Amino acid sequence: MFHAAEGGGAGGFTPILMIALLFGVMYFMMIRPQQKRRREAESMQSGLSVGDEVVTIGGLYGTVSGVEDDSVLLEVAPGVQTRYARPAIARVVTKAERPTEPVAEESDVVKE
């Protein structure tokens, strides 16, 4: 009878530990990766610029021809422009060429 009373004390802590472990696994397997994907999508959408080729969540390919605070103007065919909300942009296919700083050539450098 004495041995049965000793084993019952540890049984009350085990279910609480299992629930905490379950929540920990759910956080690292589901919630954290989803937050990372959302941050990456927001970063991509805020970095859109004129000339980028993008795909919308509906599968429409277009070239960014204008950017506003909460919307993007896409040229889907020559002379055809449509307006989309930024979150409707699924991914950037190709980034537009950005002008770079001109590099000084040897002939431009004055030698003394």
From the N-terminal CA to the C-terminal CA, the straight-line distance is 101 Å
Rg from C-alpha positions? Answer: 28 Å
Structural class: alpha+beta
Residue stretches low in confidence (pLDDT < 50, at least 5 long) are: none
Number of helices: 2
Shape verdict? elongated
Helix fraction? 25-40%
Q: Can you list the strand order of the major beta sheet?
A: 4-3-2-1-5
The largest β sheet comes out as: 5 strands, antiparallel
Strand content: 25-35%
Please trace the helix and strand order, writing H or E for each element. Answer: HHEEEEE
Mean pLDDT: 83
Number of strands: 5
Give a brief rundown of this model.
The protein has 112 residues and is of the alpha+beta class. The chain has helices at 2-11, 14-46, and strands spanning 53-56, 61-67, 71-77, 80-85, 89-94.
Task: Describe the protein in words.
This protein is an alpha+beta fold. Helix content is 38%, strand content 27%. It contains 2 helices and 5 strands; from the N terminus they run H-H-E-E-E-E-E. The protein has helices at residues 2-11, 14-46, and strands at residues 53-56, 61-67, 71-77, 80-85, 89-94. It has a 5-stranded antiparallel sheet, with helices on one face. The longest helix is centred in the N-terminal third of the chain and has 33 residues, at 14-46.
